[in-house]
């Protein structure tokens, strides 16, 4: 009888433990199901406007002046009245930069007729390799030639902009390879930094942000 009582007691404990595990699993599954399709931490709405990304506090975006793939001088301030996307790329990149360029192209297409009311600026992180010819070739390859301004300059010119936008761009570690941080600033019509996206952004996310800013 003693052994049977002990066995029954142990079975009760095991049964209770399994029941607790089952309840936890059910709640976890339900929570996971509820969150499918919901934005992750990086994509959560940052403010009441509905923008997705890291809230930048609406501080004034630092102005700059550089030449684009056509040799035309371009400043950030000339686009006041339009939402602006500012990113940092280099033309000989073989991994992240081409993906960002392709996402920007998809974003431009997603905006439809509104694309003319938005500006896309890509600032070089490779003052040596990013010549005007290289910038034009890269723009053509990713179908962004007439959608963006790929901005190039000397190291001194570009370094000031990298610093202003907290971008780390290091000297080439091998021919055509530049280590740099990726950042994508979404700036509103008043020239204020609204949200920051990383290189994992989606074209749908960016298109949504730009449509919000267009409606403001």
Describe, in plain words, how this protein is organized in 3D:
The protein is an alpha/beta fold. The chain is 38% helix and 18% strand. The chain has helices at residues 2-35, 96-111, 132-141, 155-164, 203-215; strands at residues 54-60, 65-67, 73-75, 84-89, 119-124, 148-151, 184-187, 192-197. It has a six-stranded mixed sheet with strand order 1-8-7-4-5-6. Helix 2 packs across helix 5 (203-215). The protein starts with a helix and ends with a helix.
Walk across the major sheet and give the strand order. Answer: 1-8-7-4-5-6
Profile the largest sheet: 6 strands, mixed
Q: Which stretches are poorly predicted, pLDDT < 50 over at least 5 residues?
A: 1-44
Order of helices and strands: HEEEEHEHEHEEH
Work out the count of structural domains.
2
Strand content: 15-25%
Quickly give the CATH architecture of the largest domain. Answer: 3-Layer(aba) Sandwich
* Helix fraction by DSSP (H/I, runs of at least 4): 25-40%
Distance between the termini: 79 Å
Q: Count of DSSP E strands?
A: 8
**Integer-rounded radius of gyration:** 25 Å
SSE class: alpha/beta
**Which oligomeric form is depicted?**
single chain
How many separate helices?
5
The first-level CATH class of the largest domain is given as Alpha Beta
CATH superfamily of the largest domain: Glutaredoxin
Name the overall outline. globular
Global mean pLDDT: 82
């Amino acid at each position: 009888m003693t052994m049977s009582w002990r066995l029954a007691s142990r079975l009760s404990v095991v049964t209770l433990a399994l029941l607790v595990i089952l309840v936890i699993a059910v709640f976890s599954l339900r929570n996971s199901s509820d969150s499918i399709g919901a934005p992750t931490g990086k994509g959560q709405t940052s403010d009441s406007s509905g923008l997705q990304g890291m809230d930048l506090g609406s501080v004034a975006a630092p102005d700059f002046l550089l030449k684009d793939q056509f040799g035309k001088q371009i400043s950030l301030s000339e686009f006041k009245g339009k939402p602006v996307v500012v990113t940092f790329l280099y033309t000989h990149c073989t991994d992240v930069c081409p993906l960002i360029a392709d996402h920007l192209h998809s974003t431009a297409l997603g905006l439809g007729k509104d694309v003319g009311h938005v500006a896309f600026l890509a600032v070089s992180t490779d003052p040596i390799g990013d010549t005007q010819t290289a910038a034009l070739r890269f723009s053509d390859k990713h179908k962004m030639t007439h959608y963006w301004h790929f901005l190039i300059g000397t190291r001194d010119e570009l370094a000031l902009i990298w610093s202003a936008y907290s971008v780390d761009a290091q000297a080439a570690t091998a021919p055509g390879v530049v280590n740099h941080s990726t950042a994508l600033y979404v700036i509103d019509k008043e020239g204020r930094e609204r949200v920051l996206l990383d290189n994992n952004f989606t074209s749908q996310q960016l298109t949504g942000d730009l449509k919000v800013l267009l409606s403001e």
